[in-house]
Amino acid sequence: MKISISIGAYNRVDVLGMVDYIQQAEKVGVSYAWSAEAWGQDAVTALAYLGAVTEKIKLGTGIMQISARTPSMTAMTALSLANLTKGRFILGLGVSGPQVVEGLQGVSYKAPLGRLRETVDIVRMAFKGDKIRYEGKHFTLPLPDGEGKAIRLDHPPRDIPIYLATLGPKSLEYTGQAADGWLGTSFSPDHAGAHMDHLQKGAQAAGRSLSDMDLHSSCNVAIGENVEEMIDALRPGVAFSMGAMGSEKTNFYNDAFKRAGYTDDALAIQRLWKDGKRQEAADRVPDEMVTEFGAIGTADMVRKRFETYRDAGINALTLRMDNSLPIDQRIANLEQIMDLLPDRD
Fold this sequence. Notes:
By secondary structure, the protein is an alpha/beta fold. Helix content is 45%, strand content 15%. Strand 1 (2-7), helix 1 (19-27) and strand 2 (32-35) form a beta-alpha-beta unit. It is globular and about 65 Å long. It starts with a strand and ends in a 5-residue tail after the last helix.
């Protein structure tokens, strides 16, 4: 099992201040660093900088929003980053949600999976070095009845892995069918079928198995003796996902918890959040919505929890830890976590 960390979040993050952390994480054996993109930091700029100050760690967009760029620009950006990082770049794509796409980007969120499919098709065409000629439902290149022509990007062909951040059943099926890797969230190894069944269905339809993919899952990790205190600290984050990460109509995180058996809880927390009762929403989060979606407890508890993730098919964990701690403490936490991972020589 491998470990990854995140660059950026939904609040203000000092990316330059994280450089030392990323460099030290690379030294202790962290395999991946993923850049976030929502309504703050973009997913690209930090990776371009980090490519120059790191040597081994793989750098990926976690995720690049497909509605914020045309497919051709996504391909150009990916090829540029692959060149700058000497082949260490992974293209992570996702559809985001209607509040960000329609509110911030000013484009329709309609048919997100269809647009994701066509984006991946066009990007892979560009990676192969083909002239970009595509006729789809959402994208047509070149534009019909215009002066454009099919253009080949001015890069040599390159095999860049494409990972997809998906949560809905149909999107998970497509991921299992077409992606090199999955960037999972709201995943519990205790309820793995809520995601894995759909990934498996897609993989089987494409004549392959899930072992052909890298399966990453975000994982809240807290190690210590005061378990209840650590659970309490994580409740607001769960409430935020249930209430703020989407509209009442479209919230993929909320839906994922529903599929895991927490329908009543997810809806109640969402309602409190939407009513402006943020503390009540956090208080409403049951322990299981924290403990079953992460690794929290003593070192032995966390070690066993990592084994549960491995047994569920996850081969890489994207750590969610307290980023307010000093760098030396965060690195010490990383070293402790690395020692607890299963299947390490």
